[in-house]
Design brief:
Elements: E1 4-7, E2 10-14, H1 21-38, E3 42-47, E4 51-56, H2 63-70, H3 73-76, E5 88-93, H4 103-110, H5 114-122, E6 126-131, E7 138-141, E8 156-159, E9 163-167, E10 170-173, E11 178-180, E12 183-187, H6 192-196, E13 208-213, H7 216-221
Parallel strand pairs: 5-13
Antiparallel strand pairs: 1-2, 2-4, 3-4, 6-7, 6-13, 8-11, 9-10, 9-12
């Protein structure tokens, strides 16, 4: 599919139709190609599940010129080409009842015990599919099918920062105190906002995250809140 202009200063590239690891890998490869092609004319890249939004400097490029320069990027962006550059971040998680108000509901829905849920959730290496909703909010997939359940019928008006949550095929960490409708099963002391804005190597779409269970004492010692 060819890139399309969505404004006088931006265009959209589509790299797939399904949300999966292959499409996410192609999105990452496309971002690298776009950065090479546009150079200083590139203002911003907004990668998502299946697309990349490109914002460019209209003083250096017209929309037509941008489309011409990026016309073959979807065809050239192959899965796996830039996966070796992806980083894997380990995030400590305390899964205790004090910070996991939805654990009982997840147990009931899945038929799994609390310990089994912790093992299922912490076993995979998740891929960052998109970053949005709130600064530093990473949509991670794919969740073990046994843990997949719909969002809560009634969203919470305030979810504490650091809450680890699941919904449908994804898991995430709430970076800030925000409303939210995902199921809360743990909490981390990792500052996701700082992780995504790090100067040297920020967390990006296509990177990986692994959750590491920690004991209550270690969570509290690291500054974790039980409230």
């Amino acid at each position: 599919m060819k890139p399309v202009a969505v404004s006088d200063t931006s265009c959209l590239l589509t790299l797939g139709t399904q949300i999966n690891a292959t499409t996410a890998s192609r999105v990452r490869a496309a971002c690298a190609l776009i950065e090479q092609r546009l150079g200083t004319a590139l203002i911003d890249l907004v990668p998502s599940y299946t697309t990349v939004l490109v914002e460019f400097d209209p003083l250096q490029l017209t929309a037509t010129q941008c489309l011409q320069q990026l016309a073959d990027v979807p065809a050239l962006a192959q899965a796996g080409e830039h996966d070796s550059a992806a980083q894997c971040i380990e995030i400590p998680v305390y899964y205790g009842d004090e910070v996991a108000p939805d654990m009982a509901a997840v147990c009931q829905h899945s038929g799994l015990s609390r310990d089994e849920i912790i093992r299922c959730h912490s076993a995979p290496e998740y891929r960052v599919y998109a970053i949005g909703f709130a600064p530093g909010f990473c949509f991670l997939g794919t969740l073990d099918p046994r843990l997949q359940l719909p969002r809560r019928a009634e969203p919470r008006p305030k979810v504490p920062a650091g809450s680890v949550a699941i919904a449908e095929q994804q898991t995430a960490v709430y970076p800030l105190d925000t409303p939210g409708g995902w199921h809360l099963i743990g909490r981390t002391t990792q500052d996701m906002l700082a992780l995504c804005s790090a100067e040297l190597q920020p967390l990006r779409v296509g990177d990986h995250i692994r959750f590491v269970p920690v004991a209550r004492a270690d969570f509290v010692a690291a500054g974790g809140s039980l409230k």
